[in-house]
Write a structure and sequence with these properties.
The complex is a heterodimer of chains A (about 425) and B (about 400). Chain A has about 425 residues and is mainly beta. Chain A has two helices and 20 strands. Chain A has helices spanning about 1-15, 40; strands at about 30-35, 70-85, 90-105, 110-120, 125-130, 145-165, 170-195, 200-230, 230-240, 245-255, 265-270, 270, 275-285, 290-300, 305, 315-325, 340-350, 355-370, 375-385, 395-410. In chain A, the strands form two sheets. A 14-stranded antiparallel beta barrel of chain A has the order 2-3-4-6-7-8-9-13-14-16-17-18-19-20. A two-stranded antiparallel sheet of chain A has the order 12-15. In chain A, β2 and β3 (about 90-105) form a beta hairpin. Chain A starts with a helix and ends in an 11-residue tail after the last strand. Chain B has two domains: about 45-70 and about 240-390, no CATH class; about 75-235, no CATH class. In chain B, about 20% of the residues lie in helices and about 40% in strands. Chain B contains nine helices and 23 strands. Chain B has helices spanning about 5-20, 30-40, 40-45, 170-180, 240-245, 265-275, 320-325, 330, 350-360; strands at about 25-30, 50-55, 60-65, 75, 80-85, 90-100, 110-120, 130-135, 155-160, 165-170, 190-195, 205, 210-215, 220-230, 230-235, 250, 260-265, 280-290, 300-305, 340, 345-350, 365-370, 375-390. Classes of the chains: A mainly beta (about 425), B alpha+beta (about 400). β5 (about 125-130) of chain A pairs parallel with β1 of chain B, so a sheet runs across the interface.
């Protein structure tokens, strides 16, 4: 329990430090999707909706809640560096943040309950443009500098609670309720600086800040179906309920040399998030190998925002495939390295704007904590994003993720010491 | 240490390392082709700002106030006064007034009045002046100018100011003052003096005070009582010079003559109003120089006020016009002095220019006063420049 608590505290302490950025995310409805999953799934490029493993958590398939007869938790933090190449210009930005916290608790004969919180979309961007000093007159000491800054922070976070049950024929299913929170602050600053002799400077800026937030309630359902003694199929779906005027937007317009905003407005709007569906297949030829493949679809054509034009959005499809290899699965093996999980994966996902996509390759390890204490995931990922409409533009992403998974039997009776 | 504790420590340590890792979270330049799809004003920095410059060609007129001789314009009350004739032929005349009230402490009617004296203390220069006559006169109301016509009383004395000097007030007035001070009822006695015919070099004198010397009944103890004064002075400009000065950018500390630039801001207004864009004034600065050849050596400090209206009235500070902000004195009072710079002086004018744009005013008025003692500044009209930066409204 202390371990769980400590992991929760450490993970939560990272909140608000910084999130990954993507200029392409600015043109997407909620920002860049982060496809957040637990460490074992992340190292397989996000595949695993058909993998029966308590450390795969609840994010891919609510049916996985039913797995295991002990309390199991998973957490994931991510460091991401995005390199942007735009014609002849290049820049980079990095950030690190917690991504997911998941907990499954057994209830005995009535199944398991699961809880998780995860970051689903990132709407972060800090873009800065500045000119060199402009000298309007030759020989004049006067010059002026212009800056424009766009700073967006926020994204979509989901808090989930669900229940799962496993039948005697090993089919498991789960139901999940999801509460969605979207918060975003977009700040645009136009700043000018006039420079004169003797260091005399006049600087002023105009700021526009738009704060947008909305909430949503969703439901999910998932199943994991053993189709063969070595293969499992998984399917899950999620639907977000429609709410009227569930969003609000506040705009403030202010000059830096005044304390009160010059304009302030607020309006409410209706927004409906798209449903999504996941399907996967896993295959374990023997105790050492696991193969998994997933396909997913997010139906952006059903997305509705009262104040925005959404007709240009398209349904997105994605596939991911991953594998895991454990040299020796027996806990009694004497060599530690033989118990390490070695994983790799590849994924391709379309983005909601036509002809834009991202690829991701991952390599990872799962380091077992002795005495069945859990698993620590170390994951490296390399991704690439591009869009046909921006011919000389691309984003390369390098990820380093750290996952922690653990479990404890709370209800299992301990062996008697009375002889 | 157990292995799982070791793992936990590794986890905590790596968390701390991540916490203190370098963060780079600003994208500069790259990405503009994508961002401009969402909002082109963010990436097109040239479109995001408009720099407008005005120069001497945009100065509609340059002059100084008052347009004609005005003693109301040139009256100052500042805790000191000036009297004499300056290097430019302007005559400064002063008036000081007092109010004696009953004060029953210290001495009484039964004590003996030794004398009442008027004391003057030089504010800076302690070299001896030529003779200064002091006349009894009538008190004035508010900040009215020094009255040079109706001087009701006699010449009460003459002094040559070196450091601290005094004049003995005549017995008739002295007795009245003593009687008022020792009265058992709430009596008051206003009285005043003027310096109106001193033609020596201008001297700056701190506000004078009256000293009452009283010998107590015991015949030994001498009590000194004081009454502080309120002083003013008025500058009467050199006859015949007013027209010439009013046509120049002329500032004088002695006479309060104020240089005024009337600047045509039509170009800025038009740019701000065109098609609703470039509506927001971010920055504006005014730069100018003084004509060091024709300014005197005392020219060191000045004050500047920039308004979108022309104020010609130097109304008394306690007048209705002054209360409504329509007097130059009221506008200049809260402004601090700036030092003259041989490279030129620069001031932000964003606030008054923004006011002019919002009210669709055609002109901006720049008021310049010299503030160093005895200073005269001529300003260089050809050096005037205004730079203004506007940005589109959002």
């Amino acid at each position: 329990m202390k371990k769980v608590f400590s992991v929760v505290l450490i993970t939560l302490s990272f909140y608000g430090i910084g999130f990954a950025q993507s200029p392409m995310g600015l043109n997407l409805p909620l920002g860049m999707p982060s496809h957040t999953v637990t460490g074992p799934s992340a190292s397989m490029a996000g595949s695993g909706s058909a993998v029966i493993d308590e450390y795969f958590g609840t994010s891919l398939n609510p049916g996985n809640i039913a797995i295991g007869n002990r309390a199991a938790f998973s957490g994931l933090v991510s460091y991401e560096r995005t390199g942007i190449k735009d014609n002849s210009e290049s820049s980079s930005a990095s950030g690190y943040s917690p991504r997911l916290l998941s907990l499954i608790l057994p209830l005995g004969t009535v199944g398991n309950i699961g809880f998780s919180t995860q970051r689903q979309y990132d709407a972060n961007l800090n873009f800065y443009s500045k000119t060199d000093p402009v000298f309007p007159s030759d020989g004049d000491e006067f010059n002026y500098i212009k800056n424009i800054e766009l700073k967006n922070t926020g994204g979509l976070t989901a808090w989930q609670a669900g229940w799962g049950y496993r039948l005697k024929n090993q089919l498991s299913f789960g139901l999940m309720y999801e509460r969605l929170f979207f918060n975003s602050e977009s700040r645009t600053v136009f700043e000018s600086t006039l420079n004169y002799h003797d260091g005399i400077t006049f600087q002023n800026s105009m700021n526009e800040t738009v704060v947008t937030s909305f909430t949503g309630d969703g439901f999910g359902f998932g199943m994991q179906i053993p189709v063969h003694k070595k293969a499992t199929a998984g399917v899950s779906a999620k639907y977000v309920l429609y709410s009227d005027k569930n969003g609000s937007s506040t705009r403030e317009y202010q000059r830096s040399d005044t304390s009160a905003p010059q304009e302030k407005s607020r309006e409410k709007f209706s927004i409906h998030l798209p449903p999504s569906i996941n399907a996967g297949l896993s295959y374990t030829p023997n105790s050492k190998w696991l193969f998994a493949v997933d396909g997913r679809c997010t139906m952006w054509e059903h997305y509705y925002h009262e104040l925005e034009n959404t007709k240009h959005l398209r349904n997105t499809y994605g596939v991911s495939a991953g594998t895991r290899f454990v040299p020796a699965t027996s806990r009694f093996s004497s060599k530690y390295w033989e118990k390490i999980h070695y994983r790799a994966g590849f994924s391709y996902n379309q983005l909601a704007i036509d002809k834009s996509q991202e690829y991701l390759m991952t390599l990872g390890t799962g380091l077992p904590i002795p005495n069945d204490g859990g698993l620590i995931d170390i994951i490296f990922g390399y991704g690439h994003r591009s869009a046909d409409r921006y011919s000389d533009y691309s984003e390369n992403v390098i990820k380093f993720e750290l996952g922690i998974n653990g479990g404890r039997s709370w209800f299992q009776k301990t062996a008697s010491t009375n002889y | 240490m157990r292995l799982n504790r070791l793992f936990f420590c590794i986890l905590a340590l790596s968390s701390l390392v991540l916490l203190f890792c370098d963060r780079s979270d600003v994208i500069t330049g790259a990405g503009s082709s994508v961002i401009s799809d969402s909002d082109s004003t963010i990436t097109n920095i040239e479109m995001g700002f408009s720099l407008i410059t005005l120069d001497t060609d945009d100065v509609d007129s340059a002059f100084s106030l008052p347009g004609s001789a005005s003693d109301t314009f040139s009256t100052q009350t500042a805790g000191w006064f000036m009297a004499g004739v300056n290097n430019y032929g302007d005559t400064l005349r002063a008036q000081m007034q007092f109010q004696a009230v009953n004060n029953t402490s210290g001495y009484t009617k039964s004590d003996t009045l030794e004398g009442v004296y008027l004391y003057f203390r030089a504010a800076n220069d302690t070299a001896a002046s030529s003779s200064i006559n002091v006349y009894q006169s009538k008190p004035l109301t508010g900040t009215a100018p020094v009255n040079t016509i109706d001087v009701s009383g006699p010449n009460i004395g003459t002094f040559k100011l070196k450091g601290v000097d005094s004049i003995r007030i005549n017995d008739e007035l002295a007795d009245k003052i003593f009687s008022t001070r020792t009265s058992i009822t709430e009596d008051t006695l206003p009285f005043a003096f003027s310096i109106i015919d001193y033609t020596g070099k201008v001297r700056k004198i701190n506000s004078p005070y009256v000293i009452i010397r009283v010998k107590k009944e015991d015949g030994e103890t001498v009590v000194r009582d004081s009454i502080p004064g309120f002083a003013r002075f008025t500058a009467f400009e050199n006859a015949g010079s007013t027209d010439e000065r009013s046509a120049q950018l002329y500032s004088s500390q002695n006479t309060l003559r104020t240089a005024i630039l009337k600047i045509d801001v039509i170009d800025i207004i038009k740019s701000a109003n065109s098609q609703g864009s470039y509506r927001e004034l971010l920055n504006a600065a005014l730069s100018f120089k003084h004509d060091s050849q024709n300014s005197n050596d005392s020219a060191k400090q000045y004050k500047i006020v920039v308004l979108d209206t022309l104020i010609t009235n130097e109304a008394p500070r306690d007048s209705i016009e002054s209360a409504n902000g329509l007097s130059l004195q009221r506008q200049f009072a809260p402004v601090g002095s700036s030092a003259l710079n041989s490279k030129g002086n620069v001031h932000s004018i964003a606030a008054p220019l923004r006011s002019a744009i919002n009210k669709n005013r055609e002109y901006l008025y720049v008021y310049l006063r010299s503030t160093s003692d005895h200073s005269v500044i001529l300003w260089d009209k050809s050096s005037i420049k205004i730079e203004a930066v506007l940005t589109p409204s959002r």
